[in-house]
């Protein structure tokens, strides 16, 4: 099984160096998330795009969700297309792989590039997945930077009192921003998607936690 992912920066023609540098940093983080997979490949290419492959089925959907949580450029949202197919990994250079699954992933991405209500796509995605991902898009796009930080820290498993210390806020402020972020709904959607796809996300969520911790230590 191979899970593919293409992430594209929306409106990248107007993006400055900081935005593109952050995409390169995102590439580095995602590489740590898939390092333990039997097969993986992550590459930042064409200036505004990330391409990833993983041998873990549907892993790339959750990579996309976590990547968007760590992306703080709301004027340049990430558009994400994922796909899982029952195929073997490429024998040669993954960047030159022309399998139909990669073409299907890109075609699905093209269909949402100009959408204002959906940041996630997958070939043949059923409505039972389209709708929660549309809601997920609304949640993520509606967060303020502080709400995004609080939601990321809470999703990584950090206690509220520790979040308050890191952000130099009192606990009631953290609680209020978590509520406004709709972080609880976000967690429920991720749990639903993992159950729907039969995915075990513990390892990936552990790597996401490490990425969040690195962000706030830097």
TrEMBL record:
Domain RNA polymerase sigma factor 70 region 4 type per the UniProt entry, residue ranges = 134-182
**Keyword Transcription included in the entry's annotation:** yes
Keyword hit for Transcription: yes
The lineage's top-level taxon is Bacteria
Q: Which residues form the signal peptide?
A: none
Which GO terms label this protein's molecular function in UniProt?
Answer: DNA binding; sigma factor activity
User: What are the recorded Gene Ontology BP terms?
Assistant: DNA-templated transcription initiation
Q: Keywords, A to Z?
A: DNA-binding, Transcription, Transcription regulation
Question: What's the protein name?
Answer: DNA-binding transcriptional regulator, CsgD family
Name the species this protein comes from: Salinicoccus halodurans
Q: Which residues form a coiled coil?
A: none
